[in-house]
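#struct-pred

JT: dropping the chains for the assembly here, can someone run the whole complex?
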Amino acid sequence: MKIEACFLTFLTKPHGVSVGVRVVRSQEYKNTDQFPSPLEEAATMMMIRTNSLLHHAFFKLTGILITNSLTTTPLSSSRLGLESTLLASLLHSTSFSNNDDPPLSRYQKVSSLDDAFNLFDEMIQRKPLPSVIKFNQLLSALTKLNHFSCSLDLFKQMCAIGVPVDKYSMSIAIKCCCQMSRTNDGFALLASCFRRAVVPDVFVFNTLLDGLVIENRIAEAERLFKKLIKQKICEPNVVTYSTMIKGLCKFGNNDIAIGLLRLMDERGCKLNVVAYNIIIDSLCKDKMIEDAFKLFNEMVFAKGIQPDVITYTSLIYGLCNLCRWDEVSKLLKEMEEDLRISPDVKTFSILADAFCKEGRVDEAEAVIDIMVERGEVPNIVTYSSLVDGYCLRGEMTKARTLFDSLTSKGLVPTVITYNSLLNGYCKSLKIEEAMHMFHEITRKGLKPDIVSYSTMLQGLFRVGRCGAARKLFDEMRSQGLIPDEYTYGVILDGLCNNRQVEEALSLFHLVGDSKLNSDIVVYTILIEGAGKCGKLDIAKTLFHDLTVKGLQPDVRTYAVMISGLCGKGLVEEAKQLFLKMDESGCPPNNATYNVLLQGYLKKKKYDDVEKLLQEMDGRSYSLDASASALLIDRIAAGSLYRSLLKLISRLMPKELMETPS
DNA sequence: TTCGATTGTC
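RK: done, full complex below.
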């Protein structure tokens, strides 16, 4: 008997385990009776080896597969105990794979562009031509490797040589267009469907809808979505709804997205975990974690839909973002121990990144060690987080060593990886090193993005090279990159710090971009810059403009304004503004207190100093470096009552207490 | 039920 491959399906039941075994035999032995018991035993052993977690295993003995005969053999748990050494040897002599995919044809197996082109050339020379299915399999494989452009080229050749392309070919070709942000070309292909007598189905429309979402053409996406329904072009399915939901979330319309989820439910479209995941993730990214959990609970308990690793990863990301570490570990425990869902590369990367952003690089390294132990392979994103972690701590040697080792790990740094290094070098004032890396981006065939440019601009301004910054800014625009609020913030801040407030102000007015002119962060930068340069009139005007524009100053805006006032000795005015914060619904924070405190100290308003210190103590706030220095100075000069010492020592930051200098 | 569509990391 020639058994060449067998499929196993494991079903875990409350009272035991039953194993469904599907044996695939070669065609010629189609009708043979029993399947051999050593194989059955081997199957059992395999299941034990894989810890019963594997629901589906593909057990390959030798060579090629074929056919189907299904036998279901319930196994008693006693038979799960293995005694036979024979079985062990059988297992050792065979290899098995956890891959539960059916064997792939050579058209689906292409692993490189060369493979694909060679195969294609061979195919089109055959007479008769292979079936369109074979061509589609090839296109699909290329698309899965993200070679959209090449896949599209082959599609065009297929059309040219007369392969009768069908709806599958069309949907793959349209997908390629859409993924390359060429959705209009996708619609052109849709038009050609009608010429070819191919009736586009819901798959094609879903792809096009997603293309519009990818290109941020949300209004058009909505129009298409409604048109499909109204004109009964096709019945939207769960993917259509989910794609539309994704688009709504992308534009910050979480509520409408949830509304659409309700609508699909009402219309009898079965909800699934993907639809929920999209909204849960969006809520997490928008820091609306409570709403995310509400939806999560609804999904699990009301709808009985099982969450998956993506659901948990989104929630963990949201919690990390809010530094809610206790809940992060609770959730990790829940997914692993209760639901047997293993964190994967992305989950681990998020954890490592969160530690890096907290400055806890050691712990990030430990996370990566754990993931490696668990058989997950860290990818470029994982290591980029670590590079960034080193850079944030100014550990540039470590950052560079890790970065340089990436290539030997077979990983290709992205622009984001480079941006971390640029940032690290700039913050360490190693502008030449930063410039060198900046040029390397292009040398490696990558394109610097607005973050790269903004980071370099910030570095150049910081070392006072305003001319070079100007040149780089022009270069950035000549590359077709549109500066965003962040870029402008960097430039305005840079100009102000180089005592060019008027220049900054005129740039601010010159741009006249609505987004820039109504960004509280940009305003705050300008107000701070003006204040620092002693141009209080400008700062006041800008601050006043805010109310005119209906913009709400945030806690930082107040702080820079208070600081500006204090800098000019207008402590009373600063105090009034400080008092106004609470009633404006923007209560002062630790930083605000420190700013005002310095103003009082400089003005020798010691009664106010004492009152403020008491308040800070009541709120468990602490002194920052400059306020502490000023306080110590005043105590040394004998200006402050020594009775305040105890209070002050309570408010001293820990770092300062530990390293007396 | 052997070719197509939706979700998470720097």
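JT: nice. DSSP finds 36 helices and four strands in chain A. The two ends of chain A are 85 Å apart (CA to CA).
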